Amino acid sequence: MHYNYDMKKLLVLCLWFMMVQYNYGQSKRILFHTAYGDVKVLLYDFTPKHRDLIVDAIQDSVYANAFFNRIIKDFVVQGGEHDDAILKREQENPWAPKQRLDPEFDERAFHKIGALGAGRDDNPRKASFLNQLYFVVGKAVTADDLDRLQIQKDITYTDLQRKEYLDNGGLPRLDKDYTVVGEIYEGLDVMMKISRLQTEAADYPLTPVSFNLSLIK
After folding, report:
1. What span, in angstroms and rounded, lies between the C-alpha atoms of 203 and 70?
2. Angle at the Cα of 125 (from 99 to 82), degrees rounded to 5?
3. pLDDT at position 188, please?
4. Greatest CA separation found in the chain?
5. Where are the domains of the chain?
6. Three-state SS for 4?
7. DSSP, res 47
8. Sign of CA dihedral 188, 190, 192, 194
9. pLDDT at site 153
């Protein structure tokens, strides 16, 4: 009996260690500093190209005095370069190649509430813009929603994904269409507060919401 108890205890400790490694073992963490508070995000090592893109952008001050310029309740809070600005630049330089980063889809990176994703246009490759990010604020998800999406999008949701979506909500309809690059581990309440700000018809917040992005050492 004592042997069985020790084995069970060891198994529990191993499972706990694996969960800690999954949630906090990623190599890069970043800080969104806003007037409403700070939001801390871990970047996934299993989407390495997007992780490195964000880290390089921070080091190059791309996100210094940036703005959350698209806020949609129960959907997303989007920041960085706006779609309109990207489209205008590309129209002015039609001979230049459109700069995009190929998608990185991983079942561990999905659109749960608090997920950080990379924005994009309707390009068939589903490639990401280089300097546009969004947070999932999401809404409730039902089992019927997931069952329908599995058929429509040819996705098989894992037990972990189903539990997360059914317990907490999210935006599963964006899975396998937009790359998820990380998740909030502190300050989700701040992002939810920002998501409830009043906006204009084009989803711009009535009061500008700026942020500075930095690496957490």
Report:
1. 5
2. 45
3. 98
4. 75
5. 27-215
6. helix
7. S
8. negative
9. 94
Q: Are 40 and 184 in contact (CB under 8 A)?
A: yes
If we measure between CA atoms, which residue out of 136, 156, 138 comes closest to residue 147?
156
The pTM of this model reads 0.87
CATH of domain 27-215: 2.40.100.10
CA separation for the pair 137, 202 (Å, rounded): 18
Q: What is the pLDDT of residue 26?
A: 77
DSSP state of 154: T
> Taking Cα atoms as reference points, which of 103, 98, 86 lies closest to residue 50?
103
Partner residues linked to 199 by β-bridges: 205
| pLDDT under 50: residue ranges of the chain | 1-3, 5, 8-24
Q: What b/e readout covers 169-199, taking b as 16+ CB neighbours within 10 angstroms? A: bbbbebbbebbbbbbbeebbebbbebbeeee
Q: Please, are residues 109 and 46 in contact by the beta-carbon 8 Å criterion?
A: yes
Q: What are phi and psi of 24, to 5 degrees?
A: -125, 0
Integer Cα distance of 187 and 184 in angstroms: 7
**187 dihedral zone (left: phi>0; alpha: psi -120 to 50; beta):** left
pLDDT value, residue 19: 44
- DSSP annotation of 25: -
Q: Token pair for residue 42?
A: 């871990």
What is the distance between the alpha carbons of residues 188 and 176, in angstroms, rounded to a whole number?
23
* Residue appearing with tokens 């893109």: 53
